[in-house]
Amino acid sequence: MPYVTLHNSKHTHWRLKSFSLQPFSELAISSDIDMSGYVHGSQLNSNPRGVLVIVPAIMSIFILMITCFNFTNVSIAFASGRLKEIGVRKVIGGLRSELIGQFLTENIILCLLASLLGLLFVNLLTPALIGFTGIDLSPDLTKDYGFWLFLILVPAVSAICSGLYPALYVSSFQPVRILKGKTSLGSSNRFTRFLLLAQFSLSCFALVVGVVMTQNAEFQQKADFGYAINEVAVVEINDPQQYSVLSQAVQSNPEIKSVGGSAQQIGDGTYTLTAKTRSGELQTQVARVGGQDYLNTMGIALVQGRQFHDGEADVDASVLVNQTFVQQSGLSQPLGQQITLDSTKYTIVGVVSDYKEYGLHDLVPPCVLRMAKPDEYKYMVVRTSKDKLPQVAAFLQTEWHNVAPNLPYRGFLQSDLIEKELRMTQGFKSIAFFLAIVTLLLSASGLFAQISLNIDKRSKEIGMRKVLGASVLQIIAAVNRRFVHILLIAFVVGSILGYLFTSKFIFQFIFKYHPDAGPAPYIGTFLTVVICCCMIIGSKVYRAATAYPIERLRAD
């Protein structure tokens, strides 16, 4: 009889007999499956695909915000070249509303062209994103009218929001003062300085998050899950005879260290029950496992009491609990204590070390292990060394076809159960770094525009300082002093936001087990911002400081 596998995103598998003649398949659903109270998995890891969709959306909003800030700053900076045009148009009867409309129309056209270019990039990059997330994100351009509405409204709204202030500001100048050369754009004002501060604050925030996510990705690769997660291969079996024949066959392989069996596999098929103790009730994850061979194969250590013994007594009356169960139940002396599961009383005969049932996305839950009889085994677990695991997995598949040639092989590596976690973490890291680079470049371009305008405004001042004997370093310091203050404030603000986002959100709700970030993200962010800004704007400032002073003094 073929089977259909229903699994939620937390790797809980429920196999139901199918009366269809279709071959074995998997039907993935994103919501939890309630099978008479049998639920497993981390709540926070319930929808990693949803996270991978939400995070790029947040990233896009960040980039759009910084782009609007940058567009406003750059528009003001480069409007100085159009002052005479504005003065002439006002003299010949041009209205201020017409000038505002012209500036906004130019901005809207520019943003619409940028949207078309963005749509081209989307078509080029969507196949790679689909391959990474496994989600078909391709819009139906012939039927999805909301997509076209979004494509028009976003650039239009962005153009108006980012271009309205420059249009109002530039169109407010008096034409007589413009034509007499008595009006020029100031180097900056409070609003433009605020925009620059906001840009670099978001850049520093993104850099801090990117470094922290890199640390977290490395931590996950080396994390201790409390059992031999990287040394275990699992094969699903259909009946006791298959387990007996297959387990004997594979033990001939010298690379296999041990073999065990279970009715539920840790991390893949445990279920939730309410355990009643003398101290109260406790929600626990329950699994029926094999005896000592299973626990040794899984690498779960016994810290107190004894292992299961073969025999009906342990099957019907004994349980093992983990350390978290002991702590949360308040049992100071757990050995010999009785707990009730489904109206049946069991005696605690041993305590095992904590193992991360939910991976790194949720805390270790209270766990109860019951002993399963060999005729109840649904899984066979095999342990080998980490480097030999691929070869052993291939060997298991070969042996399966020898034992059950007419049945499909259903095997997996225990480490496959955290594959989505690792992929999501890598996705977080890549997205955070991409956001950091883009925001830093956008912010640096805005800073470049502001410094260019500042140098043009203070051209004669720079020339006078050179005549009076000021050195190049003194001139650079005078020009950049205000911007250095802005960068320092932005670094402090961005670092605080990055700390709150990672410590109070990412590590509070998504990654319950994480590394201590330490000062590295903040030191790295500071150095990156300083070095990038020096490289991008250094040539501009140095060229102004080393120019002949007579050229500055003769400037209009």
Give a short account of the largest sheet: 6 strands, mixed, barrel
- Mean pLDDT across all amino acids: 78
Strand content: 5-15%
Strand order across the biggest sheet? 6-7-12-9-11-10
- What is the N-to-C order of secondary-structure elements (H for helix, E for strand)? EEEHHHHHHEHEEEHEHEHEEEEHEHHHHH
Count of beta strands: 14
Count of alpha/pi helices:
16
Coarse shape: elongated
What is the CA-based Rg, rounded?
33 Å
Helix content: 55-70%
Count of the separate structural domains: 3
| N→C terminal distance | 90 Å
Q: Which stretches are poorly predicted, pLDDT < 50 over at least 5 residues?
A: 1-49
Structural class: alpha+beta
Structure description:
This protein is of the alpha+beta class. It folds into three domains: 1-37, no CATH class; 48-222 and 420-553, no CATH class; 232-416, no CATH class. Helix content is 55%, strand content 14%. It has helices at residues 48-78, 83-91, 96-133, 145-170, 175-179, 190-222, 240-250, 292-298, 312-317, 323-329, 389-403, 419-457, 459-467, 472-510, 520-546, 549-553, and strands spanning 3-7, 13-17, 25-28, 232-236, 258-262, 271-277, 280-289, 302-305, 318-322, 338-341, 344-352, 367-371, 379-383, 411-413. The strands form three sheets. It has a six-stranded mixed beta barrel. Strands 5-13-4-14 form a four-stranded antiparallel sheet, with helices on both faces. α1 (48-78) runs parallel beside α4 (145-170), α6 (190-222) crosses α14 and α6 crosses α15 (520-546). The radius of gyration is 33 Å and the shape is elongated. The model is unreliable at 1-49 (pLDDT under 50).
